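Hi L., both proteins are below.
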Amino acid sequence: MAVEEKWKANMAKVEFMKRFPGLFVTWEQAKDKTIEAVVSLPSKPEVAVLVFTDGAFTIAPPLAPEPWQLTEGLRAARQVLEPMHRDAYAEYDRLAHIDKEALRSARLEKILGAIHNNLELIPELKDRLRELVNHWK
């Protein structure tokens, strides 16, 4: 009986916390809000409570975005961020172009290496390649 009561008490507490006044759970709810305080959790300093001037708050996970998240985020917010960070976006564009070209070059080398490594194992490969090239002419 005591275990069941403890379980019920915990569930009631959790349900209340999920409905706590001011708590928001989507980033859309933070739109147009101003942060008043950032309070790190004592047990996990990389997690923070973001408190807004109107009393709204949320718990923010560690700020360690993955590269794909940064890429998509910079693209998605470009219209808003670029006017304030023109030089950074110019550098990002330059580096993205270099990365794209390096990927293209690496793919080409991989394809050529695969052809070279299989010429002896697949005798008809030369003929098939000639047919393919002639098809493109």
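That was the first. Here is the second:
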Amino acid sequence: MNSDAEVIWRKGDIKMPENVKYVVKTAQDELLIRSLRLPIGILNTVRYIADKNDITINEYISSLILERIEVAQ
């Protein structure tokens, strides 16, 4: 078994490769959505709407929060 790991990006490099960016955003989305502890049906709806609108789950939830804040003001 080869124990050498290929470094594909380091913090501070000029630009994060697209494949790394995808993995990071997906992990962030999953951490956020699991921390909310919503029922599974709601989780699936959030995932579906975010995917349908071609945005991340983080972006979708942020937009919902911003809409509520604007309504409250």
